Amino acid sequence: MLKAGGLAVAGAATGAGTAAAQPSSKPAQYDAVVVGAGFAGAIAARQLRAAGLSTLVLEARNRIGGRTWSDTFAGQRIELGGQYVSPQQQLVMAELQRYNIATSTGMAATQAIMPAAGGFSTFTIEEMATRQGALLERFFAGTRDYFPAPHDPMLRRSMVEQIDGFTLKDRLDQLGFTPEERSWLSGTTAGQSGGSSSYGAMTSLMQWWALAGYNASSWYEAQSQQVSTGMSSLVRAILTEAGADVRLGTPVTAISEGSGQVTVTTRSGTRVIAKTVVVAVPVNLWSTISFSPGLPAVQATAAAQGVGVRNCRKLWLHVRGLSQPVIANGAEGDTFMAVVSNSQTADGGQLMFAINNLPALDVTSYSAVNAAVQQVLPGTTLVGYRAQDWGADAYSRGGWALRRPGQLTAQLYSVQQPHGRLAFATSDIASGWAGFVEGALESGFRAATQAIAIAH
């Protein structure tokens, strides 16, 4: 085993790897195998090891973190995936406290750039928050009736079933917003669901609203704090405490169960035998693994439908020419859902992050990215950028989770249940903060409890 920052890791950067990653006629044996080294898999591994189970973590990528990814750009730390944590997210806060990791905030924007007829207009942050906040309150009116206990979204199942088939577009249409009002909301409804308000379920954003505290100020607050040393530092701390064996660059292609054990096969042909397996990869990836016997109907349906938003590109922009930090919101159909100032660069410019859904942006083209930036921030200079296309990522096939119409009532809580000797862990199937690190932690804890019971 190689040691990387205190974390036991096997496998070469290409995934071809060490002797431990080569095919063997005699499969290695563990009490438990965790497939995926994101937050859900890391928590599951820690809990399995704490229960005394020998545990192997198999990660397809050459890094840990899953749909979170801390890296550097323009001399600063950036988050290419999930970025925010919130005081309302108790599991995340407990983990940060456990490892003595602080949170921080980015630059406080003083100017808002919002959609207007023929382009964009500027407002103070206070003006934007007041106007958009009132629209959000109107959009989410009645949420408390449907989700009085947002961590248990099925508490009032009969009521939720009546609206779970509605899209976010249905809700926008129902309320009869003026074109300008709609443009101030549709960047959120379309952006969060992958580019079109007709993709995402109204109940999904309503539950987020409830989890955040049922008001606009807490909604904004839930998107304000970052892990000071990067998301990857937290997942690494969890895995280091776990002390599990971790093999990077090791995609899993098959999981078969029989004779009271599970056999996991990797792309290289390596086989591992375990008493139990935690499948800790996004729902969008379940169809890439050959399960024998096959998945139950609810898991198979979720895999076919997908949960992670398909159209999701995150960019970090090094921009010069802005006089103050800004937050820019696009409307549905605009290239960027959001462009947000995060920090100042050494050359007096700003480091900003941006989210693109539909229309799809060619993130390999500087001219295309620069043209998109000029639409929102005319006259600025794009010094450079870094981008991650999560929909094109072979090991995520999408970004954050946002349920589609009908998925909540048709699949939760059945999709969380173990199948034979398999347990499932991913933010995509969380009861609470689905689509967030908090949801991954919730799911990881649950799956670990299920797997421990199976192994014993």
Compose a concise summary of this entry:
Helix content is 31%, strand content 25%. It is an alpha/beta fold. The chain has 2 domains: 2-66 and 229-307 and 396-455, 3-Layer(bba) Sandwich (FAD/NAD(P)-binding domain), CATH 3.50.50; 103-224 and 313-389, Polyamine Oxidase, Chain A, domain 2 (Alpha-Beta Complex).
Which topology of the largest domain does CATH recognise?
A: FAD/NAD(P)-binding domain
CATH class of the largest domain reads Alpha Beta
Number of separate domains: 2
Q: In CATH, what is the homologous superfamily of the largest domain?
A: FAD/NAD(P)-binding domain
Summarize the structure in words.
This protein is an alpha/beta fold and 456 residues long. It folds into 2 domains: 2-66 and 229-307 and 396-455, FAD/NAD(P)-binding domain; 103-224 and 313-389, Alpha-Beta Complex (Polyamine Oxidase, Chain A, domain 2). Helices cover 31% and strands 25% of the residues. It has 14 helices and 22 strands. The strands form 4 sheets. Strands 1, 2, 3, 4, 12, 13, 14, 15, 16 and 22 form a 10-stranded mixed sheet that branches. Strands 10-9-18-19-20-17-21 form a 7-stranded mixed sheet. The chain has a 3-stranded antiparallel sheet with strand order 7-11-8. Helix 1 (39-50) runs parallel beside helix 10 (231-242) and helix 1 (39-50) runs parallel beside helix 14 (437-455). It starts with a strand and ends with a helix. The model is unreliable at 1-5 and 12-22 (pLDDT under 50).
